[in-house]
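During the reporting period the student researcher (J.K.) took over the structure-prediction task from the postdoctoral fellow and processed the backlog of single-chain submissions. One of the processed entries is reproduced below for the supervisory committee.
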Amino acid sequence: MFALVLAVAGCGRFGFDAGGAGDARSGDGGGGTSDGATTGPTGARYGLVLDGNAKPALVAGRDGKVAVAESFVSATTIAGVALAGHAQFESYGLVWLDPGGVPGASSVFDSNDICELRDLGASATGVVATGYSQSGATTPAYGACSLTTAHQDGVAIGVDMAGAQHLDMHAISTSINVQGWTATTFDDDAIGIAGVYGSIGKIGTQSLPATSSDENAYYTRVDPATGEPSWLFGVTSPGLTYANGLDALGGDACVMGSFSGAVTVLGASMTSSGANDVWIARLDPSGHARWIAQLGGLGDDGGSTGTVVATADGGCTAAFPSTGDLIIGGATLPVSAGPAALLHFDGSGAYAGGARTSAWYQLAQVGGRVFGTVTCAAPCMIGSIAYTPATSDVIVMSLDDVTAPVILATARGGATLEWLAAVPPDAIAFTCAITAPVAFGLDVLIPTGATSTAVAVVGVGD
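J.K. obtained the following structure tokens:
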């Protein structure tokens, strides 16, 4: 029932099949920079039914263009674009949409066995995808995900707007799996990846901390031209540790994880008070912690679900499920007020405000401003606003003040949120499953089957 903030001057799921920080959980994004002209109006821009595949879709983009990605086996159609794959168990298809939602270039992430994506983030030339590859052979014709692996190897793959792929990072597993869960981009075009690993792993010439446990968190900043990290650290525990997110703003980053038992995070020793506690840190460009905050109650905080974004004031905003009371900075956030928490820490690491929410908010960051989405399927509170959904609505909010959300757009009808991401410099995008007609701006989205997947874009100004 506490929050511990440490100012730091500088210091130095296996089979991983369950959804983690990269599975429809992370609105992580907004790294990198773009000084281009406004790409469209503020508010709801367009909504588009992608397909009736009933597959959760990842999304990210930049400069008004949006990339959507879904898993498939052998063949699929996304936004009217037919795609084929070779993987025995899973491939991923990606389709670019122009600022009006018209499909264009496509790309297939493929291997002999499995290529699974867990997140997309904006990059300098398009998007960066992270996840893992498992394959008995390298087949160049299948693309950058086709690697010879002994287990699951973590990957980060850049995809430009023409659909061309580039292997930006290869996290090699030596005895147990490695996966990428979250992708972001720094202002020098380096990529940030957070994920999980077991036993030991290696990225470039650098090794992750050796551990005897099979689920541990790692965080890294990698030069995509060489695959070499400029910084890399792991958080290990005899219990479970989760990589809940990494989000870049300029050269800084906010990182978040959750853990049970005792861990050391960037030199700070922590012991959980409940089933899981959460830690949040703001890192400088060298990967040193400007500050670290630990928080948790007697319940379960974070776990495999949560997200964090970097803010313009030098702080971080985080959202995660929480099953116990939180006492932070002298304020109590009782679990009776909601099953999830939304918190902001300022540039000194001090708690600067928070609220209990009706469900876990996904977050995205554009130019240091924070936005969120949530599904509301029964009357719910959005800050002080009593919101009544049509049936199941997705609500899009500005969260510059986490205690006073401003509703920007809604997808009203049979919609359930899947994914949220930044589309710098002036938009965000989300995907949702729809089971009935959904009104979004001027568009009405009609499902093509029992469950369809849709994407929607909201302009947020620059």
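The committee noted the following: The longest strand covers residues 406-423.
J.K. will present the remaining backlog at the next meeting.
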